[in-house]
Amino acid sequence: MDRWIQTSVILTASAIFCLVNHASAQSQRDQSGEVTQLSPGEQAGEEWINSHGMAFCWCPPGSYLAGSPAKEPGRYADETQRRVVIDEGFWIGKFEVTKGQWTGSPIRNCLAVEDDHPQDNASCTKDAARALKALNELEAKLGALPPEWEYALPTEEQWEYAARAGAATRFYFGDDVNDLPKHANFSDRSYYETLDVYSNAAHRTLNDRFASLAPVGSFAANPWGLHDVYGNLAEWCDNCVARGGSWATSAENCRSAYRHPFGDRDTEQFIGFRFVIRRKQPERLR
Ligand SMILES: [Ca+2]
């Protein structure tokens, strides 16, 4: 059975994205007007706003159990449980990257730059690499990014560490799926009532009130300040595995341990991004 309740719609148009500095962005500057350079955080959930108004939350070094126990309801065989050590802290997006933070191909050029819905239909390799290159160059040029740090897609280990925020349960808020509508936009009753061709597998009673994409931050944050880690858009990791489930994903598949691999050129209407800022790997230091 296909894990994704909704079959993907793959756009064949070549989506070319670049970052824009939209009008509402708040620069991170001190009282003298100088750009504040990024530095490590101290406490989990501490926030950083970059020069383009993108908010990030600090994830401190630590360790956790990734994957799911054998008896976890809804688990898949590739969720092998193992201890992961996070040697170095990192910053991770408080929100999914929004459409307003990108300009798009001709299929998207009608969107207002203020659009705070998350950006979908972009590949984890070509499109992400282009955006990250632009962001790294812009922030470095402004003096906001130290040379040993970089913007990147999270590893799966980093993503799950940040999503769990210290919780070993199915969801960061516990095990009870009935609490999910407070925290996530998933395939719920409102989606079912759209009578979309794929919505027949949606949850019949739980209702998050969004039949498709929701503006980022419409639901409660996890204990480290991250919104929409479950649902809304699934999120690319650097190995092209999507994590967290989406607006078209069943409630069970919004679990912290759930994972779904895709091809490196796939673009899906239910997968987006959440960037990290991390120390460069040793071989990339110059
Ligand atoms: Ca929904």
Automatic annotation (TrEMBL):
Tree of life domain: Bacteria
Q: What is this protein called?
A: Sulfatase-modifying factor enzyme-like domain-containing protein
Q: What SUPFAM superfamilies does UniProt report for this protein, alphabetically?
A: C-type lectin-like (SSF56436)
Under Gene Ontology molecular function, one entry of this record is:
formylglycine-generating oxidase activity
Q: Give the matching InterPro entries.
A: CTDL_fold, Sulfatase_Mod_Factor_Kinase, SUMF_dom, SUMF_sf
Q: Which residues form the Sulfatase-modifying factor enzyme-like domain?
A: 58-240
